[in-house]
Amino acid sequence: MYQWDFSLVWQYRQILLVGLQYTLVFTVLSVVAGLALGLFIALARIGTPRAVNIPLQGAVELFRCTPFLVILIWFYYALPVLIDINLSAMMAAFLALTFYGASFYSEIVRAGIVSIESGQVEAARALGMRRWQVMRRVVLPQAFKRMIPPLMNQSILQLKNTSLVSVLAVPDLVYQGQLIAHETYRPLEVYTTVALSYFIVLFPATLLVQRIERRLALSD
Amino acid sequence: MIKVHSLRKQYGNNIVLRDISLSVARGEVLALIGPSGSGKSTLLRCLNLLVQPDGGQVRVGETRFDFNAGQRLPRDAEQARFRTTTGMVFQHFNLFPHMNVLQNVMEGPVTVLRQSRSQAAETARALVEKVGLSHKLDAFPNRLSGGEKQRVAIARALAMKPSVMLFDEVTSALDPELVGEVLNVMRDLAHEGMTMVIVTHEIGFAREMADRVLFMKGGVVVEEGPAHALIDHPQEAATQAFLSHFHLRHHAMSEDSHV
What we know:
The structure holds two protein chains of two kinds.
Chain A: H1 7-11, H2 13-45, H3 50-64, H4 68-83, H5 89-114, H6 118-126, H7 131-161, H8 173-184, H9 187-219
Helix pairs in contact in A: 2-5, 2-8, 3-5, 4-5, 5-7, 6-7, 7-9, 8-9
Chain B: E1 2-11, E2 14-24, E3 29-33, H1 40-47, E4 55-60, E5 63-67, H2 76-83, E6 86-89, H3 101-112, H4 117-130, H5 146-158, E7 164-168, H6 176-191, E8 195-199, H7 203-209, E9 212-217, E10 220-226, H8 227-232, H9 237-258
Parallel strand pairs in B: 3-8, 3-9, 6-7, 7-8
Antiparallel strand pairs in B: 1-2, 1-4, 4-5, 9-10
Helix pairs in contact in B: 3-4, 3-5, 4-5, 5-6
């Protein structure tokens, strides 16, 4: 029977907390940037000429149909060579997370917008609204309500995806865990603690999504 | 008030409107009748450019648009400004579900005409009262019956102070017992001298309310004339065939009521 001993992990708690901070900061920054970019892409793809739409769709599919780990490594090792720049591991991780997130967010936003009945747009246009007014006053307020649950679910995935940035030696929760495991030879305790840390952050988030989903269902 | 000249519209190979011309005088009520797919609704939507014609002219008030091959379509801003002069009411209401009754009616004046909220609210309250729904000002559309929704939709269109009102089968989606309340509001509007174009299957209402009736089939105007004359004594075979359905039902109903 294995003898669990978490006392060593407790000694290294500061290092894990730093890791948790990196995980959370990377999540928040890449969710905000990804949402902004995703919204921009979605709006740029609706009612625009094919010359605009098709390249954007291509880019979105490229990111959606490639594993995040591959994108991450590509951003760090390939992109700097291609466009001849220096990219720190942090920056490469942030960009990869943002673009990967944006490709999923943009599809959620686009699906939300096109799910609004065409009669709503007709009614708004019949009142004399400009295209952007129709979007801002009529379509987006209704669409956002439908988008909230899938956007939150995607953001939960986004937090989990940050664990992969450890391969670029970005000191997130997983990377810090690896350090401690090497020091202490206690991988079982360390990785259990790491797993629980993710769970403690994300479980309340999933409960929140469920509650919001139920509330939105009621107000429909 | 409205003048349409040799209007054409087609979707792919399907010609929806062939060389349509019509005019509506100020204060006149014109009813468009005809079987489904005859192009009535498309014609109505061309009057406020919700559908862009492929050819011909549309004039409402002082604004005229020419649609011909090679001519660029009017810009978004031009279209929007033009649409403020026409009010439209739809078969499926299309109220904004995230706004209550008052907000629905205020939306056009506040967003499009840049009126102050207090001024828009005052006008909106008066219009909601006019359609008999003052007690529902704070209600959201999902709490309204079909007839109530449609009356709010009429108030919302009137809030823009349009010079023309367009009605697109506004009673077709209503339960039979709710049709009357909507027709009453439209009747009041007509008596106030509003210029109206009504696409309808309510032949009795068209006969009673419209000054003129225009019968369409297959994208052409088959017959047009004064409402009573056209509905009671149609000249064209197609018009007679179409109206016979309604006359039969009309007779059947009056026989029922004698029993």
